[in-house]
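Hi R.,

Here's the input for the zinc ion complex you asked about:
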Amino acid sequence: MPEDLYEKTVTLLNQSRNAVALTGAGVSTESGIPDFRGKGGLWSRFDPYEYGTIRAFLADPEKVWQMLAGLVKITDAEPTSGHEGMAILEEKGLLTGIITQNIDGLHQKGGSNNVIEFHGSLDTFSCLSCGENHSLAYVKEDATPPHCETCNAILKPDIIFFDERIPDIVYTQTQNILASADLLLVVGTSCQVEPAARIPYQIYNMGGKIIEINKEPALNHLAEITLQGNFSTVINEIVERLA
Ligand code: ZN
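And here is the predicted structure with zinc ion in place:
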C-alpha cells in the first residue's frame, strides 16, 4: 500500500475539526465474530425474517432465543489493537466519536468513550410486559430464554430488529454528532444497511471528506482516501504516524 495515503490520512485527521467514524462488522471479525451477513455468519444459520424481527419475537420468543443465545456469546469477545487504536485517536482529540452498527460493545471495551450504538446493544435486556430492565450479567446467569425477575415474561435484548425503527434518541444523537462533522472514517462496513448507509452520503453532500478503511472497498465514488486492508493493521499504521 502506498505510504503517502497514510500521511494524507494523518494530515486530514489533523486538519479536521470534527472527525467521526462509522463502523461495522469488519471491525469485529478479527475479534472472532463472523460478519452476520457473510458466509458462516448468523444469518446464514438463521433466516433473518424468521428470527430477526420483532414480529417473530412477539409471536414466539422462545424460538427467537435459539438465535439470541448464540448472539449473547459475542459479548465475550475481546477488542483488538484496532479498537484500541481508535480509542487513541479519540484520546488525542482527532476523533470526536464513533457511530457503530455493531452490538458487541468492542469499541467501549477497547477504550472508546463516545460511542453511539446505532443498532442497540446487548448490554441491557428489557421486559416488554412490565418494562423492567435487566443487565447482561443477569441474562448470562439466568436460564435460556431468560425471564423477567419481576413478572417472568421472556426478555428482549435492547438491539434493533430488522423491522424496528432506530429509536428517536439514538437518531437524534447521531444527527447531533454528524451536524458539524467535516471528516468521516468509514471502517469495516460496506454501508449496505439502511439507514446507516445514508451517513456517508450525508457527510459527502455537506462537503465533508470521507476516508474508507475496508478489506473490500465499497465507497470509491465518495472516498477522498481508500485504505484497503485489515482493520487493525490499517488503524495501527495510522496511529504509528501520529506525532
Ligand atoms: Zn417484567
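One thing worth noting: The radius of gyration is 19 Å.

Cheers,
M.
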